[in-house]
Amino acid sequence: MSTHTARLAALRDQLTRDRLDGFVVPLTDEHMSEYVGAYAQRLAWLTGFQGSAGTAVVLPAEAAIFTDGRYTLQVREQVSGDDWQFVGVPETSVAGWLGDHAEDGARIGYDPWLHTRAWVAEAEQALAARRATLVAVDTNPVDAVWPDRPAPSDATLSVQDDANAGRRSAEKRADVADWLAEQKADAVVLSALDSIAWLLNVRGGDVDRTPVALAYTVVNADGTADLFVAPEKMTHAVAQHLGNAVRVHDRAAFALTLGQFAGKRIAVDPALSVAAIPQAIEAGGGTVLALRDPTIIPKATKNPAEIAGHRAASIRDGAALTRFLRWVSIEAPKGGQTELSAAAKLNDFRLETGVLKDLSFDAISATGPHGAIPHYHVTEESNAPIEPGQLYLIDSGGQYADGTTDVTRVVPIGAPTQEMRDRFTRVLKGHIALATACFPSGTTGQQLDALARLPLWQAGLDFAHGTGHGVGSYLSVHEGPARIAKPSYPGGGPQEPLRAGMILSNEPGYYKADDYGIRIENLLLVVERDIPGGEATMLAFETLTLAPIDRDLIDPALLTTDELSWLNAYHARVDATIGPVLEGDNRRWLTSRCSPIA
To answer: Considering only CA atoms, which of 494, 379, 397 is closest in space to residue 446?
Structure first.
């Protein structure tokens, strides 16, 4: 019996002891985070799936794992089809599947600290037709059978200085207090980790690749705040930074505090808060106001200091990536390099900047067939050699105190085929179309998404992921609420209008199963633009990422004059900006790779 088969059997035994007929295991934590600490990696422990989004449902006689189009191939590589059914979302919802598969009268367990209230309502409705019930558990049964489950991180908090933050925490809290007054609310509960970090100008080390701390915050109508965090995470410097207006409590006291809002009106974001939070407030006699977290838009709309910081981070990171791209072009064709060795080398180049805090996510270092898995995660078991004739895809980023980066490039190992060049150039055409878009205020990413897909559509092709996501400022590499995506894709809709100051990715791709993958990703800043003769100020994009796009994969005959002009202007800017940071052979290589294409 394999390890994961044994774990599934152990969980079923535990469910029997708990008098449950099923259980739902999402990949999240008690803060509804996308990336979670090792202690919350229940889905990976149970199934072996290493992706960043998914859910499992375990019933007595069957089990299913739910993933979106990014993981269609990956989940089948990492999870046993003998034990698990593979179900695609959003085509099939977890709640809908439960309604179809649960036994009549079944008791289906869920952890109220891992699901939103909306999901609970949806699941309850789906189960009602079978007279089945959804049961909130006090102890997660996965934890009960996970003997070596890691403890939550004990990393300390750190201060994000005002120079990088751009605004003092007191100013941000005053804005929240003004918002509370408008809503006639007494307080707001913040549980999203990046919201808390942004509001208080602090950072942490509790989640790999995302500089946040496990904490909750209640912001009161007078602008004061109550921070709930493990005491060992506090330092003297952080305490001085927070001051007397932020009272610090043990994180363990948070659940009890929620029951002490009798007669108060408490704002809670229904999309970012687990069901246990509003349930506890109402049980204690408080009134829950289902309102969006008031930090979401200010956090996503970068201020001048944050924008300047990201520009600086982009130059630094682009220079490290350029050194790596030259290294790959020289070393990979010789043989002896692997996905893991290449990822480690890129990490070394970033470390040599001297200011890298962390990676912004585990690099997607994928060669050949693995490149066709959009969110491939290389492991010791899957590690493949980089070989001639393949396309090597590297999607990576760095966390710096002044900015978060995310960039994807593709390198041919040897001469690419004409099909590879055609597909790459079509992806490039879509990338350019989005980068050069000009649009009115109120436009959403959903309305722009087709621009990046049209050159592929014209050849009967597409890609099964969103085109762009928001990016934080030394925070999460995936930041809401803005997205560029079809409504049917994760995070695709309903969508947020784009605003000047938002940073989003531009990453169309193409994936040929079992052969290769292509993605070209830069980060974009939404800016205001006046059009000569126009009647209103429009919005447009400024490309922030600076790194050469592989010229050997481009078929110039497929590019229009305007597209070729954009590409040559971009490369001229890359050379002029990154070149002075490089020396010797690296500088000369960059200049040659950025020379105009006729």
So the answer is: 494
Max Cα distance, the chain (Å):
73
Helices vs strands, H then E, count in the chain: 19, 28
- Give mean pLDDT, residues 503-509: 98
CA 368/CA 391 separation, integer angstroms: 5
C-alpha 395/C-alpha 337 separation (Å) is 17
The order of strands in the sheet holding 391-396 is 364-367, 391-396, 407-412
How is the beta sheet containing 246-249 ordered, strand by strand?
246-249, 225-229, 215-220, 187-190, 265-268, 287-290
Beta bridge partners of 189: 218, 268
According to DSSP, residue 371 is labeled G
β-strand pairing of 438-439 with 364-367:
unpaired
Do residues 15 and 23 make contact, with C-beta atoms less than 8 angstroms apart? yes
Name the β-bridge partners of 542. 525
Amino acid at 534: G
CB of 293 closer than 8 Å to CB of 191: no
Eight-state DSSP code of residue 10: H
According to the model, what pLDDT value does residue 424 have?
98
Q: For all residues of the chain together, what is the average pLDDT?
A: 96
pLDDT digits (tens, 9 = 90+) for 67-109: 998 888 889 989 999 999 999 998 999 999 999 999 999 999 9
Name residue, tokens 């998914």. Answer: 54
Continuous segment of H or E residues that includes residue 82: none
User: Within a 10 A sphere around the Cβ of 190, how many other Cβ atoms?
Assistant: 29
Res 52 pLDDT > 90:
no
Cα 206 from Cα 215, distance rounded (Å): 10
On the CB side of 368, CA atoms within 13 Å amount to: 14
pTM, two decimal places:
0.95
Let me know if 580 is exposed, middle or buried by CB neighbors in 10 A (0-12, 13-18, 19+).
exposed
Question: Which DSSP string do the residues of 178-213 spell out, in sequence order?
Answer: HHHHHHT-SEEEE--HHHHHHHHTEE--SBTTB---
